[in-house]
Amino acid sequence: MISLTRLSGAELVLNSDLIERVDKTPDTVITLTTGAKYVVSESLRAVVAAIRLHRAEVIALSEMVGVGPDADEAVHPDDDTRQRPLASVTAHPAAAVAGADVGEEG
């Protein structure tokens, strides 16, 4: 889930896996696979950066999930005898700047 801001200033949280398209018209319009549309105050590039950060967090946290001797048996990290460091993800410094060119070429 990514946290965004409606034009009214209200906070909005979206499931980034359902985002089909992000348009700049000049407002940023997010279209979901369900057909729902949301207009947000963040720039197109900021939305893309938020999606990338969310997906990086999911991948990093997946390291905390182990698989037991049987492929169908999940092992809780506390039950695992191996010590794994907690993965962490931080935003790219350019993502902190509003409207920064994060990962897009002009």
General description of the model:
A hairpin with a 6-residue loop joins strand 6 and strand 7 (74-75). The protein contains 1 helix and 7 strands; from the N terminus they run E-E-E-E-E-H-E-E. The protein is elongated, with a radius of gyration of 18 Å. It has one domain (2-86). By secondary structure, it is of the alpha+beta class. It is 17% helix and 25% strand. The strands form 3 sheets. Strands 3-4-5 form a 3-stranded antiparallel sheet, with helices on one face. The two termini are 27 Å apart.
Question: What are the salient characteristics of this protein?
Answer:
two-stranded antiparallel ribbon, alpha+beta, about 110 residues, about 25% strand, cell projection, 7 strands, disordered C terminus, Flagellar FlbD family protein, 1 helix, cilium, elongated, single chain
